[in-house]
Design brief:
Elements: E1 14-18, E2 28-30, E3 37-41, E4 48-50, E5 55-60, E6 65-69, E7 79-87, E8 103-107, E9 117-121, E10 126-133, E11 136-145, E12 152-159, E13 164-169, E14 172-178, E15 189-192, E16 209-219, H1 224-227, E17 260-262, E18 267-271, E19 274-282, E20 292-298, E21 305-306, E22 321-328, H2 331-334, E23 339-345, E24 350-357, E25 365-372, E26 384-391, E27 394-403, E28 406-415, E29 420-421, E30 427-430, H3 434-437, E31 440-448, E32 454-461, E33 470-476, E34 482-484, E35 490-491, E36 503-510, E37 513-520, H4 526-532, E38 534-535, E39 537-538, E40 542-546, E41 552-556, E42 564-580, E43 588-596, E44 602-609, E45 612-619, E46 624-628, E47 645-649, E48 659-667, E49 670-675, E50 679-684, E51 694-714, H5 716-721, E52 729-730, H6 736-741, E53 746-751, E54 756-762, E55 773-777, E56 780-784
């Protein structure tokens, strides 16, 4: 779409003109005709974006609005009104309730006094112009809907002489009603971005989410040229970087939307050179309501870009919300193209719906309609979160439910002849105990691992430990049902329960790796999320596999090594007490130690400041790992649950004299902790002291041998700057043997950060077993792919 300069609307009879550009330090905009200042209110400083005419104002969906006095306007004849809007989403009018009520985009309407005017919009994008003309309310409904992510120029003309009120969008007439006389303006108080009498505590509903520009009022009738105004800039709905630039709690490298609320990251796939993660999103505020499918992309699983919303409510079967589901690719059913299956909810029941992308970018999607028409007879009314899998020639969908009050999953079989799905109440797998398995299973996921075994995960509700993620290893029977190796479920997270830690994982397989990430909830009080402007995020990606005993093991995704920036390294350290790790500090760090287990506790201190710190400690005598944030000044998110001490007994006994690998990632307000490349947990923490950025290694009560200690500042820009060292990079598969033959018999191997990764090894074994990356041996560089 091409744009030309906007037609100026400054006619001689312009009586109100608000450009929405905040030009003073008092969060105000100016009404140019009267000179009056109107206050911009909200939790964030006003955000100006290149707009339709000059700069537009970004409205956050739950707190931003404008109010103030404008010049009195009491026309005796025709009058016109106009503004520019570009919604990101439609407003929430009533939380989780059906409604046809509209909210005010901008206006002075006063129903008690029967005066004023407004442009209004409802939860589905239907819009109108409303005014009191001749003392009577006139409402002109548009025949179309306002599109999201594009500019719309709305204009209305009240022409008493012609007896009409006409509504236009982008120069096209979209509605007309009867005029009974001139506008009765009444109040000169103008409100922009919300309905005047709606609540804004703590989360505002009946508020606008998107861009608004150039609110104008005229004496007279707008000309055809003025009605056909065109915008100067495309509508940019990206959250401004300025909103969170001083937020030390917001992660830099964990997946999350640009602002507001997210939940399950339930669809990961790869297309067009990028990983795509789809997730539950409320763009109208950091709270749960009227869910959409959000979309973020990344080439490396740590630098994320938010794309436009993939799916929004609006059909008969999903006008309450587009709830969880999955992304799947299947040659027979989708032609090898990623498709979405999701739960559509209509305020009465749930349906399973399919959608397909318009192209390989996966940006725009088309709903294909209902494929499973509600829950099977005899099962829970709570029926949601479909997941697709294939076993040989047979394709299946499983859906979370409950049977006899215990969590379960339904099984739906694909019929190749009719291209339909069964819905006969078959059970894929069900729990045995409310206490252990919960009363409902959210987000079921079934994944075939490399050795032919299947990993089944669910996030149950109402277990004796609250919400946490469980898994089983097993097989798929010939009828498509699941047979676990053991009936007793295992905990996915090392520290778990009560809704903390990684929940509702999404799992994707690429290049021989099984990659998992999941939602890690904030668990903060509502007012904290309100002030922050965001809620929840996703874990760092983990790699999954089975060990020789058939147990699930988790380690950091190998691609995270590319995040390693400025670093520190030492070996064979006899640690007695606390040692500051030099050159490494801040809110984005990785610390990795290989310790020899004895009797003395050891670990890391992070976020060390003048008034406190957080610690990650392993205590050999009781085989416990503990993350302790009680000595940290923080926003409290775990009162009456963990109370600042997150501890777990390791599933296996660590023998005295054996190695213990502790790998900890800190990014803003999340810790991802890995033990021995087997166990993992993610914990949220919210330091409030600005100097909380130091990193230490410690032993508690004696000497501990540290075989190796490495620490890095996480810095994707550093990685990019060192990712292409030049023409002297040799490929290990092309001529490396000849170069190694010229090296000494024993060599040291360094990574591109200058950190020693192998000491005094045979040159013939120098690159064996190294993860992907660039390494230096002597004067030579090698790329391990």
């Amino acid at each position: 779409m091409s744009f030309i300069a906007a037609s100026p609307l400054f006619a001689a009879d312009l009586v109100t003109n608000i450009s929405l550009n905040t030009t003073d330090s008092f969060k105000r905009v100016t009404e140019e005709i009267s000179g009056n200042k109107l206050t911009v209110r909200g939790y964030h400083s006003p955000e100006n974006i290149p707009g339709a005419v000059g700069d537009a104002l970004r409205f956050d969906g739950y707190s931003t609005f404008i109010e103030g006095e404008v010049a009195d306007f009491n026309p005796t004849g025709a009058s016109s009104f106009s503004l520019w809007i570009a919604p990101e989403t439609y407003p929430i009018v009533l939380e989780d309730q059906p409604s046809t009520e509209k909210i005010t985009i901008a206006g002075t309407i006063n129903h008690s006094a029967k005066t004023g005017w407004e442009f209004a919009i409802d939860k589905d994008g239907n819009y109108s112009f409303d005014c009191y003309a001749g003392g009577w309310l006139a409402s002109v409904e548009a025949s179309d809907k306002v599109p999201c992510y594009d500019w719309s120029f709305l204009a209305a003309v009240n022409d008493p002489e012609a007896g009409t009120i006409t509504l236009y969008r982008n120069g096209e007439q979209v509605g007309q009603g009867k005029s009974l006389g001139p506008l009765g303006n009444g109040s000169s108080k103008l409100t922009v971005g919300k309905t005047a009498d709606s609540s804004t505590s703590p989360f505002g509903i009946k508020t606008f989410n998107g861009l608004i520009d150039e609110v104008n009022v005229y004496n007279g009738v707008l000309s055809e040229a003025e009605l056909n105004a065109t915008p100067e800039n495309m509508a940019d709905l990206t959250i401004p970087e300025s909103r969170f630039e001083k937020d030390l709690l917001r992660p830099k490298y964990h997946g999350m939307p640009g602002a507001n609320w997210t939940n399950e990251s339930h669809g990961m796939t790869y297309s067009d050179g990028k990983y795509h993660v789809f997730f539950q999103k409320n763009a109208n505020g950091p709270y749960m309501s009227r869910l959409h499918w959000g979309h973020i992309t990344s080439e490396n699983l740590y630098d994320w870009t938010e794309e436009k919303i993939a799916l929004a409510p609006g059909e008969d079967y999903d006008h309450k919300g587009v709830w969880s589901g999955a992304v799947f690719t299947d040659e027979e059913i989708t032609g090898g193209v990623p498709n979405i299956i999701y739960t559509g909810v209509d305020y009465a029941r749930a349906y399973i719906v399919q959608a397909k992308p318009t192209d390989e970018t996966l940006i725009d999607w088309e709903k294909q309609g209902v494929i499973i028409n509600g829950k099977p007879v005899g099962l829970s009314d709570d029926f949601r979160d479909p997941y697709f899998f294939r076993n040989g020639d047979n394709a299946y969908i499983i859906v979370g439910t409950a049977k006899d009050g215990i969590g379960a999953t339904t099984l739906h079989r694909y019929n190749k002849a009719t291209k339909t799905w069964s819905n006969d109440g078959s059970i894929f797998f069900a729990g045995n105990s409310k206490e252990e398995d919960g009363t409902f299973w959210e987000m079921p996921n079934i994944t075939k691992l490399a050795d032919g075994k299947w990993l089944f995960t669910v996030t149950p509700q109402n277990t004796s430990k609250g919400v946490h993620t469980l898994y089983w290893i097993g097989d798929i029977n010939e009828d498509g049902t699941f047979k676990p190796s053991t009936e007793k479920p295992l905990d996915l997270e090392l520290v778990n329960g009560q809704g903390y830690g990684l929940l509702s994982p999404t799992i994707y397989q690429k290049d021989g790796k099984t990659i998992m990430l999941g939602i890690v909830p904030d668990k903060l009080p509502t007012i904290d999320n309100c002030n922050l402007g965001w809620a929840h995020l996703y874990s760092f990606p983990r790699e999954l596999s089975l060990n020789e005993e058939g147990n699930l093991i988790q380690k950091p995704y190998s691609g995270l090594e590319e995040l390693r920036g400025t670093g520190y390294s030492t070996e064979n350290l006899a640690l007695d007490g606390v040692k500051t790790i030099e050159k490494v500090s801040g809110r984005q760090v990785e610390v990795r130690g290989v310790f020899t287990v004895g009797d003395v506790p050891f670990g890391f201190n992070l976020l060390k400041g003048a008034k406190g710190y957080a610690s990650v400690t392993y205590t050999p005598v009781n085989n416990k790992l503990e993350i302790n944030v009680t000595k940290l000044n923080r926003k409290v998110n775990d009162q009456n649950s963990f109370n600042g001490r997150y501890s777990a007994t390791l599933p296996e006994v660590i023998e005295k004299g054996s190695e213990f690998i502790l790998d900890v990632y800190l990014d803003g307000s999340i810790l991802d902790v890995f033990v021995n490349n087997k166990y993992a947990t993610s914990v949220r923490l919210y330091p409030t002291d600005s100097d909380a950025d130091g990193v230490e290694v410690f032993s508690d009560g004696g000497t501990v041998k540290v075989n190796s200690l490495n620490a890095w500042v996480l810095d994707s820009a550093y990685s990019e700057g060192n990712d292409n060292p030049g023409s002297d990079v040799e490929d290990p598969d092309a001529g490396v043997d000849g170069i190694i033959a010229d090296l000494p018999e024993y060599v040291n191997v360094y990574n591109m950060n200058g950190l020693l990764v192998k000491r005094n090894v045979k040159s013939t074994e120098a690159i064996a077993g190294l993860p992907r990356g660039i390494y230096v041996i002597g004067s030579h560089k090698f790329t391990v792919k």
